[in-house]
Design brief:
The complex is a heterodimer of chains A (162) and B (153). Chain A is an alpha+beta fold and 162 residues long. Chain A has two helices and five strands. Helices cover 39% and strands 41% of the residues of chain B. The termini of chain B are far apart. The chains are: A alpha+beta (162), B alpha+beta (153).
């Protein structure tokens, strides 16, 4: 009688152990698959943001005179920001904003003193997806008989349709 | 009885493998164009430091640091200017990005395949994906390298 009970107990332990083993194997594979999907989603989102920012920053209407990646000519941007809706059909995005990160705003700033944000273009549409990336904001300056690129650090923020 | 012990051993092995893989969360570093853009805009930013009477950017200051020059207008060694200002500017940049949890920037000099760290600075606790970018320029037969790693969660 006792021997038979032992056998049943062994059997039930075995079934429980096997069940736990297969559950663990299942969780392991699900986790492996989902971590791949998460990584791919993250990469796609970043690639889309980078592509948009690079495209806008490389447009001749905004880019620096010297061929450089992620470089915006602040003179061109300031000119375009004053053009209102004239360029509304031209831009492949719904809004273009430039934020100034470094140096801190001051009185000698170009195009106007203490500026922090410049709206280059705004279609007026609401609920947009915003992509942003760091860019150099450069202009040609003259100092001690030399012309040189004076650059600041800025952020290009683009609004695209959802 | 032997079968029972075998099954228990199998479950324990499975559990150990599962826990090892689950807890092993060493983030992989991946090169990223946006980090290169971030690094490029940082290194190209014009500073108040003048070298030979000319306003310079951070990369020129790095070159001056390697060449033992000083900021003529500030009476400050270019290495100490770099060390005190890079973390400050990077902090200003990173505080505008909510998803960056940590960063590490390293300035290296490479000569005859030997790398020497000139200056390194890091901040924050890394959570999520690690993205990196580098800026390499040649100066007096040496490679001057700046590496930036950021953690994006």
């Amino acid at each position: 009688m006792v021997r038979a009970q032992m056998k049943i107990q062994q059997m039930s332990f075995m079934i429980v152990a096997l069940f736990i083993f297969f559950v663990l194997v299942g969780i392991f594979f699900i986790k492996l698959n989902f971590s791949g999907i998460e990584d791919r989603a993250f990469e796609l989102k970043r690639a889309e943001a980078i592509y948009s920012i690079k495209t806008i920053a490389q447009m001749p209407e905004l880019s620096c005179t010297k061929k450089r990646n992620f470089c915006i000519d602040i003179l061109k941007a300031a000119t375009l920001s004053g053009m209102g809706d004239n360029y509304s059909d031209f831009w492949p995005v719904e809004s273009i904003e430039i934020y100034r990160i470094f140096p801190k705003p001051g009185m000698g700033d170009f195009p106007k003193p203490n500026w922090r944000r410049m709206v280059v273009f705004d279609s007026g549409k609401k609920s947009l997806i915003k992509y942003s990336g760091f860019v150099s904001l450069c202009k040609i300056d003259y100092e001690n008989n030399f012309f040189y690129d004076r650059c600041e650090i800025g952020k290009l923020v683009l609004g695209v349709k959802k | 009885m032997v079968g029972f012990v075998l099954i228990v051993a199998l479950v324990i092995v499975g559990l150990v493998v599962f826990l090892t893989i689950s807890l092993r969360s060493v983030p992989k570093t991946k090169e990223d164009v946006s980090v290169e853009g971030m690094l490029e805009s940082l290194m190209r930013a014009t500073t108040e430091c003048e070298i030979s009477g000319q306003s310079t950017d951070f990369f020129e200051i790095f070159k001056s640091c390697v060449g033992n020059k000083s900021c003529s207008n500030l009476n400050e060694n270019s290495c100490s200017y770099l060390k005190s200002n890079i973390p400050r500017v990077l902090f200003e940049m990173i505080k505008t990005e909510a998803d960056i949890s940590a960063y590490k920037i390293t300035f290296l000099k490479e000569e005859n395949s030997k790398k020497e760290v000139i200056f390194s600075n890091s901040s924050g606790k890394c959570v999520g994906h690690v993205l990196s970018g580098r800026d390499l320029r040649v100066f007096r037969n040496k490679n001057l390298i700046v590496e930036l790693k950021i953690c994006v969660g």
